[in-house]
Amino acid sequence: MANNKTHHTNKKASSVSEQSDQSKRTEAVNMALNIIQKNESLKALSMKIDKFRANPKFAVCYAELFELQNMIRETLQLDKDRDTFQLYVSENSDLFYSALHNKYPGLTPSEIRLSSLIRLDLSSKEIASILNISSKSVEMNRYRLRKKMQLSGSINLSEFIRNI
User: Fold this and answer.
1) DSSP per residue, 25-50
2) Rg for the chain (alpha carbons), in Å?
3) Could you give the 3-state DSSP secondary structure of residue 130?
4) Torsion of Cα atoms, 115 then 117 then 118 then 120, to 10°
5) Hey, how many other C-beta atoms are within 10 angstroms of the C-beta on 130?
6) At what angle do helices 2-54 and 124-131 cross, to 10 degrees?
7) What's CA 93's distance to the chain center, in Å?
8) From CA 159, how far away is CA 41, in angstroms rounded?
9) Which of 105, 148, 111 is nearest to 127 (CA)?
């Protein structure tokens, strides 16, 4: 009977751990989606400013529009939310990073960062927005990562990384 209680306790602890992992994953995805939404809003705002700057009626406030646009660009490049997100993902992925490093010790910090974002099941477009790069760049980086990991084209990279 004691053995049965131990099995039940271990099963319960495992379930709590899985719920905690899922909760952390959901929180990380929500943080990522908030960053994406903010970046898309800033890019849309920047495009509107471009339209105003192109209109001769707004020549009087060209300098102010230019300054606003620079502020937006700086915000997109020096994004503290992105750093906070990366820190959160890093803190909650110790086992993943350890396993990744053991299997693939030659990965660069950028490839490790990409792997952690792929692990969250984010699309290339979402990853591009978080990293403030183009979707094409993400696809190229995914290709290089796949090559470095020596994965055939038939293996799903996202699934493979989630199983590390």
Assistant:
1) HHHHHHHHHHHHHHHHHHHHHHHHHH
2) 21
3) helix
4) 130
5) 24
6) 70
7) 13
8) 31
9) 111
The 10 Å CB-count burial string (b at 16+, else e) for 52-72 is eeeeeeeeeeeeebeebbeeb
Considering all CA atoms of the chain, what is the largest pairwise distance in Å, rounded to the nearest integer? 85
Q: How far apart are CA 144 and CA 50, in angstroms?
A: 35
Q: Which two tokens stand for residue 46?
A: 């920047």
Count of residues making up the chain: 164
Q: Is the pTM of this model over 0.85?
A: no
> Per the structure block, which two tokens stand in for 112?
């490790």
Query: Rounded to whole angstroms, how far apart are CA atoms 50 and 11?
Result: 58
pLDDT in tens, 85-140: 777 777 767 788 889 999 999 999 899 989 989 998 889 998 998 888 899 999 99
Helix extents (H) in the chain: 2-54, 62-77, 80-91, 94-103, 109-119, 124-131, 135-148, 157-162
Contact assessment for residue 154 and residue 124, using Cβ atoms and an 8 Å cutoff: no
From CA 100, how far away is CA 85, in angstroms rounded?
19
